[in-house]
Specification:
2 domains; 71% helix
Length: 170
């Protein structure tokens, strides 16, 4: 049975990503290039957002083209197990989006950046590595790894941005 709603959702998502990516490219092009200060053009503030916008636009176009049949693979839901996996994927996507919104809206700018980043990375790893069937030592090891990665991130990211890129973080 063909899953038409998935194809329609992919088309809509692809078009939205394409438009968003093009808007990011347009906005990044309008950012100051700092030519009057004789600054290297490759260090202009719009370079990275522009590249990311191009990537988002290209991937959105590929998704939209796939959904209308250009490169469509067989998109069938054949069993209850497949439907269950689809629901689990949507739940993981919702969790990811919620963690990102909490980080960007509630944490950054309200608490020190290093702490916001530590909390985000730890929560993200812990949430996506958590398995209710794991034994207690396995859970403890996963949480220790999450804490170690979060600590490294909380130290390295601010250092790199503030010391190497000379970007003041919130």
């Amino acid at each position: 049975m063909e899953t038409r709603p998935l194809v329609r959702a992919d088309l809509i998502t692809g078009v939205v990503l394409l438009v968003f990516g093009l808007a990011v490219v347009a906005e990044s092009y309008g950012m100051p290039r700092l030519e009057e200060r004789n600054i290297n053009p490759w260090t202009a503030p719009g370079i990275v957002p522009g590249m990311l916008g191009v990537i988002i636009a290209l991937l959105g176009a590929v998704l939209a083209l796939r959904s209308v049949g250009g490169w469509r693979s067989a998109q069938t839901v054949q069993s209850a197990e497949d439907r269950s996996e689809a629901r689990a994927s949507i739940a993981r996507l919702a969790l990811c989006a919620a963690l990102c919104v909490i980080y960007a809206v509630l944490f950054v700018g309200r608490i020190p950046f290093w702490l916001a980043s530590w909390l985000f990375v730890f929560a993200f790893i812990a949430a996506f590595e958590w398995n209710s069937g794991d034994a207690m030592p396995t859970r403890a090891r996963k949480l220790a790894i999450a804490a170690a990665v979060a600590t490294a991130t909380a130290v390295v990211v601010p250092y790199v941005f503030e010391t190497l890129f000379l970007v003041r973080l919130p």
